[in-house]
Amino acid sequence: MTIALQKFDELRLDQVRREFGSLNALKDVTLTVKRGEFIALLGPSGCGKSTTLNCIAGLLPVTGGAIWLDKRRIDTLRPEERGFGMVFQSYALFPHLTVKQNVGFGLKMRGVPKAEISRKVDEALALVRLTGHAQKLPGQLSGGQQQRVAIARAIVIEPPLVLMDEPLSNLDAKLRLEMRAEIRRIHNTLGATTIYVTHDQDEALSLADRIVVLKDGVIRQVGTPNELYEKPAHIDVADFMGFRNRIKGKVIRQSGTRATLAVGDSEVTGVMRASVQDGSEAYAAIRADDLTTGEPGANSFAAQVETIEYRGREFVGTARTLDGIDLVFRSDHAVALGSGIHLRAAPDRVLVFSEQV
After folding, report:
1. 93: burial class by Cβ within 10 Å (0-12, 13-18, 19+)?
2. Beta-sheet pairing, 258-263 with 266-272
3. What is the pTM for the complete model shown?
């Protein structure tokens, strides 16, 4: 293979700001991306993840701070001068051009000789497993195939950085899983550096070397998938890492790294993720997978089943406690709607936070 992405040591965002009138979409974002990393920008709609990507790409100018590629400042350059590969959510293919023409368009605009364009395009199509589709139009391809064309177009120009903005959101569940594996395979094969925007925690966990969680234009936490999954620093990060149950209580005692909260007539003990004070309000976060049916006892809640769904190997339901708290839980057996149950979580699977947001 002769496709060789341009080399660099690091991309640095230094206190990057982006304002839209009175709205501060990015607030002093500072981040360093090393060569070869796969970085996922994760967060809810409006958190600033796509804005960050577009500032890196040059599609949006920054209103403060700077972006550096090694020792070269690039936020002052036009998008084409940065030379990054971009994969959009909408594919953005030319409908009247063949697959081969779409993939080679960027090379053609750069004045690359026809023979070299043809060779590089053939290599890129082979890499994304579309060799037999070179003469088809985009409309003759499935959504997954069109996204492969978009990826081939992004990498064929041999960019130092590949930027992907929610590239799988238009695909069905099965195709998303397939393309997720393909994107990581292509990244590894090329030794690429990739920045990937998503609101899907499963995508971020499965693809990324490091995950950057944003909220309201601010980076909340940066870490490996394991670090964020097991040790979220804030309750909003925990929410994105699958801790769907957020329970408000009052701290009644502490012991080592654990705190116990009074929640109505119940008590819940968990691992503190920040210091809390006795008598203060705090929040316990629990994953649905860790909240299961069982006998009454420590760390349990009496509740009434409101919904139940069969998920193949398990049942997932919602239940409301006597104090009016809605909980999402998992069960390995069917439970009847309206029935009374007790939901339990092991203390080491509960996280305690001092703040709500």
Report:
1. buried
2. antiparallel
3. 0.91
Please state the length of the chain.
357
The β-bridge relationship of strands 64-69 and 72-73 is antiparallel
Per-residue pLDDT of 210-253, as tens digits, reads 999 999 999 999 999 999 999 999 999 998 898 999 999 999 99
Q: Apex CA 92: angle with CA 90 and CA 94, to 5°?
A: 140
Helix (H, G, I), strand (E, B) or coil at 227: helix
In a 13 Å sphere around the CA of 34, the CA atoms on its Cβ side amount to 4
Does the pLDDT value for residue 105 go beyond 60? yes
Output phi, psi for 269, to 5 deg. Answer: -110, 135
β-partners of residue 24 are 19
CA distances in angstroms from 78 to 43, 73, 82, 209, listed in the order given: 27, 12, 7, 29
Query: Of 329, 261, 344, 255, which Cα lies nearest the Cα of 298?
Result: 344
